[in-house]
Design a protein that fits this description.
By secondary structure, this protein is an alpha+beta fold. The chain is about 30% helix and about 20% strand. The chain is globular, with a radius of gyration of 35 Å. One of its GO terms (molecular function) is zinc ion binding.
Length: about 1100
């Protein structure tokens, strides 16, 4: 019934009495009445729960709406304030006030006994448990009191946790005998009791260990203050060996994690190793990179699991190091810079009290939502599963409370966090899966590893205040909107993919069980093709901003038990320059030095954005010259898609200048739009500058913030958006390091002198050559703003860095002195300004030359993308014009996924001594022996010019003969991937021992290690890990490309069985792109261009097999 017919009905029968009235809170104020009580109950339960007891006040009359702006079902007789549930989150204390209950009304509501109560007591609640907990605020009664610090607690478990902290204090006061649970509490004590001791806030620091060795620990906060970082530096012995540094820092690492557990409760943590690798460059010099290797995230609920998780994290880091060496070419470890421990408080999801189901879920009738008022909703769901009550009121908790003892919790308190579910599974012999629900999407949160026959599926829903667990009674019905077919389906609980037959599901689980639970969406048929569609990437952005920060490393000393040197990076200055569409600076470079540098930067950059946004959103009408008109009429092909122009040609013009550009198809012209974004380019934004900016961005209120993360703390890019009229204009912060992953010094060195146009614009000195190289700066010497007043360049020793354990050479120092004298610098402040100014202008020239290369050779502006792989992939799609078919069958996808193993990186013979007659140590009495070093040029490129799959994937019968497999041509247009069993004949073992065929991923246990490896461990704890291993064992369910299979069979392996065959169309579709880059690299005249074309080839390789499972979504 709509509102008009409803009002008409009321006007037509004004005297008709309806005994059952609908009451709702909020602005709607329905007040609709019903003849039948059941109809009222049905409507009421759709909008809010039916509580055990409802307090009636003011009656259900129009006067209710005249006197009270919102109706609440529960009211407290003690206070005079009305609040909703979200405002009462912290109001959970009890009261001793006694209630009088009014008689029950016809609708089932109760109210206060007297009118006086209505006039005096006005606070009200939507649920009975909220009322009870609120009434604690009036009693001032605390049941548990600490006799050490006099704190009081109402809950036993809070008191127990508090007392545990007293028993494990770590920080001692050096002035008196008191001890404290954290450094923060110690600092508070010192300030209050010992003011003579000078203290400062701890934000970032370096600490020496109590053992007195050379390892140091530095602490800092993360970008969003979620993770805190502690840095462990290697000793002289361990800085070139990952195993040694892991062995050295293990005791300190475990102690630090346990300390954080005591401080924060449950924690999550991960480790990151920063290392320097080197190799010989093509010009005979030395090339260096500084990669980071990250472990997986570990969750610690108690300290007793730390000892197991630390070795697991080390193993993950070593796997990342192996992958880096394998993918690189000739990299050798130079030194390990530090190990970073990142720790954050772990807050698992809790299953709590009742929440109303979204209407879409109610309509599915697949979920039982029990209306409990306690914190035991998960327990009631398990009991409901066992009892299987199908009555219409099965949502009432009273059905289940008599059976509470059937579920064993073994001391686990409610609300039950998801990480404690394995305990309940073990005690109840159940398999429990928990799914989340957000934005009409169901996704797995916890999927059991148990194989029990009895399975319970739960749905965890949430609002702004709490979470609530419901029982899923029918998974097919819950997920049924994913398909138009209404028949029952079988679902994989790990990826929520549906299957029509149990047999297909069992086959799928062989692959899916190897991955973490994750909701997987496959493309729909007809929409499962990748091709170049981002036409607007060809439109150069008219403005970019290049910027950089400089910081002071402020050190402060504080003694508390162990000696700790505290340091924090405080931004002290910045520079930025705006580059226009012509590649020249729009205005002179802006330089700032002073306090609050990040705030000052954001204020100025947002002002610049306002000015540039006004230009971006204004459209200059087209200005056609007679020649332009002639060109338009004579054009035969669209300049975007290169197809013939017919009757749909339109004039394309530059909206910023009004200049005519070309004749286009109407559809191409619509796609060729100018993106309303302004890139702000930094070098190493992800690891440094982004952390500074993020702390200031949190203060902005009127901007939409979005990020593309690699982890929760590090972002590939982030943006600030704001709408101007009908356009949304954004500042996109971009990291040039994601395109050119080397130092700015190396990039500047590779650029020829004639390419520094922006630098020359901003300096009018004739001896500009002094600035065509990266300058040097004494970062750790600059500890305060007072240093800027010093009137001479500090000594060469002041340029040393404790992080890299190195300084500058005499030539670099003489260059710094020359620059100081030539530019007549008066103090270190002016030296800072010149240094950051040159850094930004050099960065601008490097990036502009990179943009020009992209636009010249590929017709794309790189600032539309965020990384080199993304850019290379778009370049390849645009150049090859090859549509690529995507899988719609999840089993096909996982079949291929399981076959991706990586490449071998191994030295089977560790030592060999040559006896070369051309060398001085030649021994004529021994036979001549040479060592040959072989390397494959353009390794990735060589693989990408071969025939590659592009579509028409299908399964074919596995009933094939050996002769048929061996007869498939190498250049066949049809390719095949097999799943087979192979036998490795014993007679081949000696011959193949150095380099066995068919490597496979294996879980390496301690018993699999060689005696030498066991000796290297020297008693250190070993954690089993997965490695790609060449071995002589027989292969089971081995997934292999047909060319490799033919090669293995030719060299003696025996085919035992064929399980599956995937057929597809193939051709060398990527060859055109790879050969283009290879040829351009040969013809390049500068190191910068040579590196560019090599990058465009190698980056495309990783994109062809990108693992999107690792992508994360971070919302700020």
């Amino acid at each position: 019934m709509n509102i008009d017919s409803h009002q008409s009905f009321i006007m037509e029968f004004p005297k008709l009495q309806h005994p059952f009235t609908m009451v709702m809170a909020g602005p709607t104020r329905c007040g609709k009445t019903y003849f039948v009580r059941d109809l009222l109950h049905y409507k009421r339960e759709m909008f809010f729960p039916v509580p055990d007891k409802i307090v009636w006040f003011y009656g259900i009359h129009q006067s209710l709406y005249d006197n009270i702006p919102e109706f609440y079902d529960f009211a407290t007789p003690t206070c005079n304030e009305a609040m909703n549930a979200s405002e009462l989150q912290s109001e959970w204390k009890i009261d001793n006030t006694v209630w009088d209950e009014a008689p029950s009304t016809s609708s089932g509501y109760r109210g206060p006994a007297s009118p006086e109560m209505r006039s005096q007591h006005f606070k009200s609640f939507g649920r009975n448990d909220n009322l009870k907990k609120h009434m604690k605020t009036h009693s001032k009664e605390n049941n548990f009191k600490c006799n050490i610090c006099d704190r009081s607690f109402q809950r036993k478990h809070c008191f127990a946790m508090h007392m545990q902290k007293h028993q494990e204090k770590k920080c001692d006061c050096g002035k008196c005998d008191r001890s404290f649970i954290s450094l923060q509490h110690l600092n508070q004590h010192v300030r209050a009791s010992h003011p003579e001791i000078k203290l400062t806030s701890v934000k970032r620091g370096i600490a020496s260990t109590s053992k007195g060795n050379s390892k140091r620990v530095r602490r800092e906060r993360g970008a969003l203050n979620t993770f805190t970082s502690t840095f462990f530096q290697p000793t002289e012995n361990s800085k070139k060996d990952f195993l040694l540094i892991f062995d050295e820092i293990t005791p300190q690492l475990e102690e630090k994690i346990k300390e954080k557990i005591q401080e924060k409760g449950a924690v999550k943590w991960y480790g990151v190793v920063k290392a320097v690798f080197k190799r010989e460059s093509e010009d005979g010099g030395e090339e260096r990179v500084t990669p980071y290797f990250r472990s997986n995230v570990q969750i610690e609920l108690f300290g007793d699991t730390v000892g197991d998780h630390v070795p697991e994290s080390f193993t993950k880091i070593l796997e990342a190091v192996d992958e880096f060496i394998r993918r690189g070419s000739g990299w050798i470890l130079d030194k390990i810079v530090h190990f970073e421990l990142c720790v954050a408080k772990y807050q698992p999801l809790l299953a709590s009290s009742y929440i109303i189901l979204p209407k879409k879920l109610v309509d599915k009738k697949a979920v039982l939502n029990i209306q409990n008022e306690d914190q035991k909703c998960l327990v009631w769901c398990l009991i409901a599963h066992k009892l299987n009550i199908l009555a219409h009121d099965s949502f009432r908790v009273s059905h289940y409370t008599p059976h509470e003892q059937k579920i064993k919790l073994d001391g686990v308190e409610c609300p039950l966090p998801l990480n404690k579910i394995p305990i309940v599974e073990r005690l109840s012999n159940l398999r429990i899966n928990v799914f989340g629900y957000e934005e009409n999407e169901v996704f797995p949160l916890y999927v059991s590893k148990r194989v029990d026959e009895e399975c319970v599926n739960l749905l965890l829903i949430a609002n702004e205040e709490t979470q609530h667990c419901c029982l899923i009674r029918n998974m097919s019905r819950l997920l049924g909107d994913l398909t138009k077919h209404k028949t029952k389906h079988h679902y994989c609980y790990r990826c929520l993919h549906r299957f029509a037959k149990v047999e297909i599901l069992k086959e799928h689980l062989q692959y899916c069980s190897e991955h973490s639970p994750q909701h997987i969406k496959m493309p729909e048929k007809g929409e499962n093709f990748i091709k170049f569609q981002n036409v607007h990437y060809q439109h150069p952005l008219p403005y970019i901003i290049c910027a950089d920060f400089e910081s002071l490393i402020v050190k402060e000393v504080h003694t508390s038990g162990n000696s700790e040197i505290i340091a924090r990076h405080e931004a002290c200055g910045y520079a930025y320059v705006i580059i226009g569409s012509d590649g020249r600076s729009v205005k002179p470079i802006s330089v700032y030095r002073g306090k609050n540098a990040v705030q000052h930067f954001m204020e100025n950059i947002l002002k610049e954005k306002e000015e540039l946004a006004a230009k971006l959103t204004s459209i200059v009408p087209i200005n056609m010259t007679p020649q332009d008109e002639l060109d338009f009429r004579s054009a035969t092909h669209c300049s975007i898609c290169k197809k013939a122009l017919k009757g749909d040609r339109v004039r394309d013009h530059d909206h910023q200048t009004g200049r005519y550009r070309a004749a286009l198809h109407s559809s191409c012209n619509l796609k060729f739009r100018l993106s309303k974004k302004i890139p702000v380019v930094f070098h190493n934004l992800k690891n440094y500058d982004g952390h500074l900016i993020m702390q200031e961005i949190g203060k902005l209120k009127d901007y939409e913030i979005s990020v593309v993360p690699t982890t929760m703390e590090k972002y590939v890019t982030f943006s600030l958006s704001k709408r101007y009229h009908k356009f949304k204009v954004s500042l996109n912060f971009v990291d040039i390091f994601q395109f050119l992953s080397t130092s700015l010094e190396k990039l500047v060195q590779n650029l020829t002198p004639d390419k520094f146009n922006i630098l020359k614009e901003n300096f009018n000195h004739h001896n500009i050559s002094l600035l065509l190289r990266k300058g040097v700066y004494p970062y750790e010497y600059m500890v305060s703003h007072q240093k800027f007043d010093e009137e001479r360049l500090p000594s060469v020793d002041s340029f040393e860095s404790t992080l890299t354990d190195s300084g500058i050479n005499d030539e670099d120092y003489r260059h710094a002195q020359t620059v100081w004298n030539y530019f007549n610098l008066k103090n270190m402040g002016e030296y800072h300004d010149l240094y950051v100014k040159c850094d930004v202008l050099q960065l601008a020239d490097v990036f502009e030359n990179f943009r020009k290369l992209c636009q010249h050779y590929y017709g794309l502006d790189c600032v539309h993308l965020f990384t080199a792989p993304g850019l290379a992939w778009q370049n390849s799609l645009k150049m090859t014009h090859q549509p690529l078919e995507l899988f719609t069958d999840i089993n096909m996808h996982m079949f291929i996924e399981k076959g991706i193993r990586g490449g071998i990186s191994v030295i089977t013979k560790r030592f060999s001594q040559a006896n070369n007659k051309y060398l001085p140590n030649f021994d004529a009495s021994k036979s001549i022996k040479h060592i040959i070093c072989l390397d494959c040029n353009n390794l990735y490129g060589a693989s990408m010019v071969e025939s590659l799959p592009y579509g028409e994937f299908e399964r074919i019968s596995a009933d094939v003969t050996l002769d048929w497999i061996q007869s498939v041509p190498q250049d066949s247009s049809e390719g095949y991937i097999f799943e087979v069993d192979l036998k490795y004949p014993e007679e081949l073992h000696d011959l193949h021992n150095d380099y066995p065929l068919a490597p496979e991923k294996m879980d390496i246990k301690f018993k699999d290690l060689s005696e030498f490896s066991k000796a290297v461990l020297n008693g250190m704890k070993y954690t089993p890990s997965t490695k790609l291993v060449p071995n002589l064992k027989d292969k089971k369910n081995y997934i292999i490309y047909y060319k490799n299979l033919q090669f293995y069979l030719k060299h003696g392996l025996k085919l035992e069985k064929v399980h599956k065959i995937l057929k597809f169309q193939q051709k060398p579709w990527l060859k055109k792109y790879i050969m283009f880059n290879t040829e351009q690299r040969k013809n390049s005249k500068s190191a910068f261009e040579k590196d560019f074309f090599k990058l465009m080839n190698n980056s495309a390789y990783g994109k062809t097999m990108e693992n999107i499972r690792n992508r994360v979504d971070v919302q700020l």
